[in-house]
Amino acid sequence: MRTQQVLEKEDSHMREPKSITTTATGSSAARLNAELVARLERLPVTRRLTLIRVVIGSATFFDAYTVLAIAFAMPQLAVEWSLSAGEIGMILSAGYVGQIFGALFFGNLAERIGRLPVLLITILLFVSMDVACLFAWGAWSMIIFRFIQGIGTGGEVPVASAYINEFVGAKKRGRFFLLYEVIFPVGLMFAGIAAYFLVPAFGWKAMFIVGLIPAVLTIPMRIFMPESPRWLASKGHIQKANDVVSLLEREAIKAGATLAEPVPRPVDPKATARSDWRELFTGIYRKRTFTIWLLWICVYMVNNGLITWLPTLYKQTFNLPLQTSLAYGWVTSAVGVIASILCALLIDRVGRKRWYTVAFLASTVPLIVLTALGAVSATQVVVFASAAYAILQTISFSLYLYSAELYPTRLRAIGTGFGSAWLRAGSAIGPVLVGWIVENFGISYVFTVFAAVALLGGLITVFFAIETKGRVLEELSP
Predict the structure, then answer these.
(1) Upper half-sphere CA count for residue 132 (Cβ side, 13 Å)
(2) How far apart are CA 377 and CA 382, in angstroms?
(3) CATH number at residue 454
(4) How many angstroms separate the CA atoms of 53 and 180, rounded?
(5) Is 288 strand, coil or helix?
(6) Cα gap 136→147, rounded to integer Å
(7) What is the pLDDT of residues 74-127, one digit of tens each?
């Protein structure tokens, strides 16, 4: 008898709420949405959630690889095509300009048709343009192909970030998400490793051949991965959302987990309203929107200016051999990965605002030291530029987490997409700025400008950022 009662109690956690229907509106939809959120919040990290993180992480890994592949191909490409510093800067920036459009367009599309269809489209787009880059014949063809490829890569990451965030409870969200997001700097590091072995032996085209691998990721995405239940509920598809949550609950119980009784929190009826991008600039979201935009610009202007130009600077400014230049560039990526892992493990304890404040201000120190030393040797640059990059990398790779936490479900993908569009703007400005400063003033002034930008980012965080650690997504956006 007691066993039967236990089974019935467990089964009650899996059963649909009696009032669930295939469609719901108004306060009823908000109440059902609140029940689904409460059930999601108490779920442990199951095998399926781990699979989701691995598959989406793999796509993000090759997104990162694709972004940086051109930087490691560039030392050889610059010689082969006799490129000027200005042309190099434009090629490096073209992808980031495309990413601006991709982030804006696909972020909006993901709110309308769902997270998974958009992820499939973006992956196929940046893979197809990887093929096109193999047939580039000069600077302008490469600029065009990289621009279109950027549209795909720009759309993939913010939508993937919204998707991952929407499956995990508040207490586990930071670590779970950032252990997924750390795959991005790992992908950057892998680009350096691949370049070190492939470019000297097989030429720059080898970098783009490796980038074709993500095409196979579309298979598990179509078969094994459910749509975001939070997105489904926000669109009034309560039954479909319930089916996804029930699936996760069954798997958790089968794995031996004991599920606590869900505790619904009040959810505003607007949680199931149609998304409207103009809401990003009203009420509590106005300050959040402009703050996150400025943080994206500051951190990516510095970090992408550094990481994309360093291999070429080592080769052209310090006259190092090609393989040594690539190895030094890889060192910078590697220390960024180590710093990112530490951030992923600690940020739930420290908090987003405190971490970003300290990181921005601390990164100015090696940049100022490098300016004072004059950046007269490759050793100085690899040590101090790598230190600054590693510190700032903890911000750049975790801002997707922070961005997704600032908005409600109906605005999450588009808000993250709009924010990351400014990431792309900062990323596009960085390489062009470096090329212009090197040509007109010398390399040491690059680090002076970057120190000032990092300081600005720290001040913005201190005065305008909010803390989000440990808070339910619906609580952050009441």
Answers:
(1) 17
(2) 9
(3) 1.20.1250.20
(4) 6
(5) helix
(6) 13
(7) 888 888 888 887 788 788 778 878 888 887 788 788 888 888 888 888 888 878
Structure tokens at 159: 């939508």
Measured CA to CA, the distance from residue 175 to residue 401 in angstroms comes to: 10
pLDDT range class, residue 288, cuts 50, 70, 90: very high
Q: Which two tokens stand for residue 274?
A: 């149609």
- Between CA 396 and CA 191 the distance in angstroms is 18
Sequential DSSP letters for 81-104: TT--HHHHHHHHHHHHHHHHHHHH
56-60-62-65 Cα dihedral, nearest 10 degrees: -160
Split into its structural domains, the chain has a count of 1
Residue 50 Cα distances to 164, 168, 176, 177, 398, angstroms: 10, 11, 9, 11, 19
126 to 416, 417, 458: CA distances (angstroms): 19, 17, 33
Joined together, the tokens standing for residue 454 give: 């990092």
Neighbours of 465 (CB within 10 A): 21
Query: What residues make up the domain containing 414?
Result: 5-476
Contacts of 374 by beta carbon, 8 Å cutoff, 6+ apart: 444
Neighbours of 7 (CB within 10 A): 10
The first and second tokens of residue 163, run together, are 């998707």
